[in-house]
Design goal:
seven-stranded mixed beta sheet
Length: 246
């Protein structure tokens, strides 16, 4: 991970409360897909959620019945996590150097966070902390670009700031890990202001890229014209990839 990527990875701590308030959750079908692809129920499993942030995925795993610990590198994000989920254990660390015991886990999850790792360091750590037959699950909420207004916004972002805004690094098969993929479409209804607040929690906006404030003002004008009642439907496709430890 280069210095720029590292800076962007840690930028979320500057907006932890806003991140927790406005970032989307995940659909109920996620856990059925996890069960199907891993061959075991996450309920009761020993799980670590890496890059846990403010605990969006971690809290879902906990509520589902997993014995979960969160791993988070950012100070601000960790503080917000502890404020919102004081009962769930959290340790400071990242995917390149996991502060976890060898062979201790049934499931290792990365929700919106695998792309902040260096796979050449992260994969050996995955293999170290998973028990034989344990599973690595990597997923992300990707905007559904088949929806016209989302595709149009994506085009405007790339024209203004360059390509790659929503591009998440996908895990590739290495070290004996072979991935199966499941795509899970879903949507949520949110206010236009909430949508723009969510957009502002992406690292591009948090590192002070020139023009981001003006872009959000322009988007507010466009989206309120599109949705005069002030509400909009965000459409996502969860890209879930699962590999079993040999």
């Amino acid at each position: 991970m280069d210095a720029t990527t590292g800076t962007r990875a840690l930028s979320f701590s500057t907006a932890a409360a806003r991140y927790a308030a406005h970032r989307p959750s995940y659909p109920p079908t996620l856990f059925e897909a996890l069960k199907d692809l891993t061959g075991r129920d996450p309920a009761g499993a020993r799980v670590a959620d890496v890059g846990a942030g403010t605990g969006i995925a971690t809290a879902l795993l906990d509520a589902y019945g997993a014995r979960v610990v969160a791993v988070e590198p950012g100070e601000g994000m960790a503080a917000e996590f502890r404020r919102r989920h004081p009962r769930i254990p959290l340790v400071r660390g990242d995917g390149n150097r996991l502060p976890l015991a060898t062979g201790s886990l049934d499931l290792l999850t990365y929700a919106q966070s695998w792309h902040w790792t260096d796979p050449n360091q992260a994969v050996p750590e995955v293999l170290r902390v998973l028990r034989p037959g344990g599973a690595l699950a990597v997923w992300s909420n990707d905007p559904d670009l088949s929806v016209e207004w989302i595709a149009d916004q994506h085009t405007r972002i790339e024209e203004r700031f360059g390509p790659g805004f929503y591009t998440n690094q996908r895990p590739r098969s290495q070290g004996g890990l072979e991935f199966a993929t499941r795509l899970l479409p879903w949507s949520r209804r949110i206010s236009v202001d909430g949508h723009l607040a969510k957009l502002s929690t992406h690292s591009l906006f948090l590192i002070g890229e020139p023009g981001t404030d003006a872009f959000l003002v322009d988007e507010h004008r466009r989206l309120t014209a599109l949705c005069p009642d002030g509400w909009i439907e965000e459409h996502y496709v969860v890209d879930l990839r699962v590999a079993l430890r040999p």
